[in-house]
Amino acid sequence: MDTSSSASGVPPPLVPPPPVITPPPPAKPRRSWGWMIVSIVLIVLLGFSLLGNLAQAVSHAIGGGLNRGFKNSTAREVGPKLDECLLEDNGAHNKIAVITVDGIITSHSPDQAGNNMVDVIQAQLDRAKDDKRVKAVILKVDSPGGEVMASDEINKAILKFQDETRKPVVCSMGSLAASGGYYISAPCRWIVANDLTITGSIGVIMHGINYRGLMDKVGVAPMTFKSGKYKDMLSPDRSTNDIPPEERAMVQALIDETFQKFKGVVRTGRAAAHEKNKAEGKVLSPDWEDYADGRVLSGTQALSLGFVDQVGDFDDAVDRAQRIAHLAEANLIEYRERYDISDFLSMFGQGGSAHDLKLDLGLDLPRLRSGCMYFLYQAPEN
């Protein structure tokens, strides 16, 4: 003890307390931008959907006020939504609608909105029917054909359109208008083909695969229970020796019946066109059925046989449509299918088979369903 400090009355120096060490504040969690981006995208999509619904409601209200008491036969609440697009502006009041048939003709390949080719073409014809400014239609065909039923439905739609509206349909064939592609061209008032167009191929094909031989090799035996002798017609797991001749005859009779329908469509369509076109068009050659054996023809050969009326291109088809419809000038339009947010969202509420993801390899190869008949030209593979 320091007695001198005590004696002198001087207090001892103060000792500072030890410093208080506070822990560092916890690090702020890193901000995640993923959920924010997703939220913004969903909000934007919802906004577009609301705007679309509002615009549709306003359009319906305006249309209802202007057309009170008038029922538009093609005002569709469901089905393809089409926008009119201008292809060529010639400063004219009248219009010529261009409808394109490209690729395999089918009713089993719905688009993003669930509409197939037949639905879209029918909707386009309906729009052209109701528009009084549309005086003619050009059917652009670039197709090897396809399903029998789909081709027949398009054929009938074109016939009905011309009968009800008296508006001519002029066909403009592209590089390929064979089999079903020609089937839907036959009812047209005038047919224009390029000299290098591949057309014809008038005939019917039914495709199937028999894999019974492979099953026998791997030791697989099918078990079939049926109610009648022919209930398993066209079954791929039967031995070809078990197919009775009368069954083969029945299948061939179906093919022949459909083939006769094809030739009847050609005969009737070309005769009706010639009756209206008179000397300007072409009449079927007396021996045209000799060339209706599935063979393909060039545009020049088709002209000589009366399958087409003119060798030319799309511009020639436009000129012919104007002449038939007695138009000095016309604007060219087309109807393009419109997809909105409801079509996009509907993809998530449908089965996986409704909207398959496809890899586009630049090839348009048909997938023939076994047991189905086709108006189809199959080009040989390299």
Structure notes:
It is a single chain. This protein is an alpha/beta fold and 382 residues long. The chain has a single domain (75-221, 235-348, 367-376), classed as Alpha-Beta Complex (2-enoyl-CoA Hydratase, Chain A, domain 1). The protein contains ten helices and twelve strands. It has helices at residues 3-8, 34-66, 117-130, 148-165, 180-183, 212-218, 245-277, 299-305, 314-324, 341-346, and strands spanning 82-88, 95-102, 134-143, 145-147, 169-178, 190-193, 198-200, 205-206, 296-297, 310-311, 331-337, 373-376. Strands 1, 2, 3, 5, 6, 7, 9, 10 and 11 form a nine-stranded mixed β-sheet that branches. The chain has a three-stranded antiparallel β-sheet with strand order 4-12-8. Helix 5 (180-183) links the parallel strand 5 and strand 6. Helix 3 (117-130) packs parallel to helix 4. The N and C termini lie far apart (113 Å). The model is unreliable at 62-75 and 347-365 (pLDDT under 50).
